[in-house]
Amino acid sequence: MTGLSRGALAAYAVVALPLAAGALPLYIHVASIYSDSFGAQLAGIGIALLVARAADALVDPWLGILIDRLRRPRLVIVAGVSLLALGLVLVFHPPWQGTAAIAWLMLSLLPAYLGYSSAAIAHLALGATFGATSADRARVAVWREVFGLVGILLASAAPQFVASNPAAALAQSSVAFAIVAPAGVAVALLAVPSSHGAAPAARPSWADALRQFARAPFAPLLAAFVVNGIANALPATLALLFVADVLGAPQFGGQFLLAYFAGGAIGLPAWLALARRLGSVRAWQLSMLFGAAAFVGATALGSGDLLPFLAVCVVSGLMLGGDLALPAALLTDALRERGHEATAASYFGVWTLSAKLTLAAAAGIGLPLVSALGYVPGQPATAVPLQLAYCLIPCALKLVAAGLLPLTIRPRPQGALP
Fewer CB within 10 Å: N-end or C-end of the chain? Predict the structure, then answer.
């Protein structure tokens, strides 16, 4: 498919809104809600989350194969959003308290994660069929990420207007999501024209996709994506600790996160314009370099420096737009240029698996590292290792990731896609 009208593009991209809105409470609110409202122990909650997230990550490549073989991405998206909605209702309506609630959490997270992952992979694969040029494909990715960020902002702000009690607010919000989201996604996808791409020449295999990721240009692109993903996930893991023990303002953690994501939403159109002018590779490089330059300033902050940190959040959030939209656009470029778009879901299955592993790596490296260096949560006097890990390590990783990107550029014949 060569392109989309503005209306069809909006109909495709708006699907990212309920996906992001549905995923946010699963990653942000579950631990606190089950601990504070349902009497579950944090250790048990952690085990439940670890098991469910590990299963979710490992199944992604197999989901990619299934989606490619079905060749019905719209059907998979609607089914996935419906399964996500069911999982959300189950997660936030546990019938038991205490230890039994942990077992319920582990089981109810499985359909929620499976629904989200299948819908997200199918949505990415459907987007890979649109756009005749690299700039067109960047446009598709930017629109998708704009709606995703709007979903994050809505999910962050909406529960407080539903009920004063967090558990009740999320319980009611999950029911509303289940009523509205699947039908809304189905209606939106009706406005997206069908793709008539060629059928895959052979049965899709995630192992084939994995082998391709060992070759240029996929290998350096995936390497840059993973390194930069850890650079983003590490401060996300440590952010609330930084706000509490370095800035001394734990009550403002949510507001800083909102400012960061709002900056990302505002900055996305600028990254689209820059990708059109300079190309997606160079635009993504600039987003990483400027993001590192903006974030390194947080090393000089201390107790009470709320306005300077707000500025850091907004500026680094503006740079986030490049990280969100351009890597997937570059993968789509590589797939389209090599005629692999018919098996795009298999590639995106490996891609999303890598993204989830970066989140796990950030938590598995960052928290033990700052602890081993002497940081104790709740004791600001020990927070120097936290500040260094929060600020300097991510900046260094971004520089490495930006340096990997030129390896994805290869000479192309005259007239080839940019």
Answer: C
Tell me the C-alpha distance between 371 and 366, whole Å: 9
Helical H segments across 214-300, by residue range: 218-245, 253-278, 280-295
Three-class secondary structure of residue 240 per DSSP: helix
> How many C-beta atoms lie closer than 10 Å to residue 179's C-beta?
12
392/299 Cα distance (integer angstroms): 7
Q: How confident is the model at residue 118 (pLDDT cuts 50, 70, 90)?
A: very high
Say if residue 195's pLDDT is above 80: no
- State the chain's mean pLDDT as an integer: 83
Confidence category of residue 177, pLDDT binned at 50, 70, 90: very high
Mean local confidence (pLDDT), 329-341: 78
Residues 124-148: tens digit of each pLDDT: 888 888 877 777 888 888 889 889 9
Whether pTM > 0.90 for this model: the answer is: no
Give the per-residue pLDDT at 411: 38
Q: How open is the CA angle 208-64-189, to the nearest 5 degrees?
A: 140
- Residue that the structure tokens 């598709």 belong to: 140
Helix (H/G/I), strand (E/B), else coil: 415? coil
One DSSP character per residue, 160-209 reads HHH-SSHHHHHHHHHHHHHHHHHHHHHHHHHTSPPP-PPPPSS---HHHH
Residue 377's φ and ψ, nearest 5 degrees, are: -55, 135
Cα–Cα distance measured from residue 276 to residue 34, given in angstroms and rounded to the nearest whole number: 46
Residue 251 CA to its chain's centroid (Å): 25
- At 402, which helix (H) or strand (E)? helix 384-404
Peptide bond into 217 cis (omega under 30): yes
Q: Alpha-carbon distance 141 to 118, whole Å?
A: 18
- The answer to whether the beta carbons of residues 380 and 239 sit under 8 Å apart is no
Q: Is the pLDDT of residue 62 over 90?
A: no
Over residues 348-354, the mean pLDDT reads 82
DSSP structural state of residue 38 = S
What is the DSSP secondary-structure string of 357-375? HHHHHHHHHHHHHHHHTT-
Check: CB of residue 391 under 8 Å from CB of residue 295. yes
Q: What is the pLDDT of residue 2?
A: 47
Could you tell me if 271 and 279 are in contact, meaning their C-beta atoms sit under 8 angstroms apart?
no
